[in-house]
Amino acid sequence: MITALYAGLAALMLLWLSFRVSLKRMALKVSYGDAGDKALGRAIRLQGNFVEYVPMLLILMGAGEALDAPGWVLHLFGVALIGSRLVYIVGYGSDPQRPALRQIGMTITYLLLLVGGLSVAGHALLG
Q1: What are the tens digits of pLDDT across the range 98-116?
Q2: For position 114, what pLDDT does the model report?
Q3: What is the maximum span of the chain, computed from C-alpha positions, in angstroms?
Q4: Is 97 within the bounds of a domain?
Q5: pTM of the model
Q6: Omega cis (within 30) before 55
Q7: What is the mean pLDDT of the chain?
Q8: Is 126 part of a structural domain of the chain?
Q9: Considering the domain boundaries, does residue 27 fall inside one?
Q10: Does some domain include residue 127?
Q11: Which among 37, 4, 5, 6 has a CA at the least distance from the CA of 21?
């Protein structure tokens, strides 16, 4: 049930990112690619980066929940997941970009993948 909360929040974030891409595409009359427009290219990459990482993080979180991880651990993971994505979006999506925030967001994302992957795989192997 805890994973469902963060999956719902992630879905709303993805909807927002996708809507931003669609609005920029409509304004520029661009159906495919970014037509060399930097703002559209950045919006596409923000959306792409989100869908590249968030599904696996939610799978790890759901697996942890299925393996009876403590609720506080799952909430910590979920808050870090949503927080890292927000920090990344602000860092990469700002004009001018804020590289430190982008790096913080990605570092937290990588740590979540590492800790989540090791925890779930370890529990499955040793469990």
Answers
A1: 999 999 999 999 999 999 9
A2: 98
A3: 54
A4: yes
A5: 0.92
A6: no
A7: 95
A8: no
A9: yes
A10: no
A11: 37
